[in-house]
Amino acid sequence: MGAKTADDFRIGRGSPCFIAAEIGINHNGDMDLAERMIREAAMAGVDAVKFQNYRTEDFITDRSLRLTYTSNGQVVAEPQYDLFKRCELRQEDLVRLDRCCKDNGVVFFSTPTSQETLDALLELPVPVLKNGSDYLGHLPLIRAMARSGVCTVLSTGMATLAEMDAAVQAFHGAGGEALVLLHCTSSYPTPPEEVHLRKIPALAAAFECPVGFSDHTAGIAAALGAVALGACMVEKHFTLARHLPGPDHWFSATPDEMRTLVGAVRDLEAALGHSALGPTACEAAGRVAYRLSCAARTALPAGHVLRREDVACLRPGTGLPPAAMDWIVGARLAGPVAQGHLFTREDLR
Questions:
Q1: Whether this model's pTM surpasses 0.85
Q2: Pick from 227, 250, 272: which residue ends a domain?
Q3: Whole-angstrom distance, CA of residue 170 vs CA of residue 141
Q4: Residue 69: which domain range?
């Protein structure tokens, strides 16, 4: 069964791929920019927009820890604490962003880092919760998400199978039901040879739950491959422009790229269709027009006993099919036939 959200979205088998634009910290602490990004993501056709409503002190207190990243073509090094602190979202920010998402017809969800920040999301409320790859080992928070009853997405980047199993068991052990796992490679951007999309059906088989894909690659090929392999959800970093300051903009999808991704996923879903073997509805006419019939190679008189050399295989397929050749040969004609005549049962006796 798919995991159902409070807004009656479904993530899982039988539902369209749930496509989320990961804004994360690309808003740079500017709520006007964040709202512009929501509007652009909605116009690109995504189903949801995701943020991160952490408290920096939940995971960083050592201000000597530095992050080196590329921003607008330049290498930047700064304390991690400073970077994350300026991108924190307050409760009033969450309310504002949630309202903007509702106004633009997309789902708002976010990644909390504590019971306090989880409660802030539940107060809105939100229909989906996200646990990041860095927090997969934070079992108390996963249990709290499970107890909320809200559909929860667990990202599996960097995790061993044992760590994944511990997280899933913690979620179900706390009473959680609506669970989605995301296959993820925590490398930015991820080179194609490190994506390993075949993990998607492997995860689905191992944990018997819907599995999606957190895409950190350049381009859309990996996302399309993920959907073809059964991914129920695709999450991709999103920016208005790669030249904006910050660590994630340079590898994020622009509005045009996101629009292309959404359109390609929807086309792919239509193309995947069903697995029932046999002709499709649009092939029915072709079966008549393009298939072959047994036909008279030359004009033949009544009473003629058909030989193999008397019979050709010609379009259209309205006469006896080539498979009838074995019993047509040796049959006697009931009447004369013209060259090219398509044989029917009434022609033979």
A1: yes
A2: 272
A3: 10
A4: 3-272
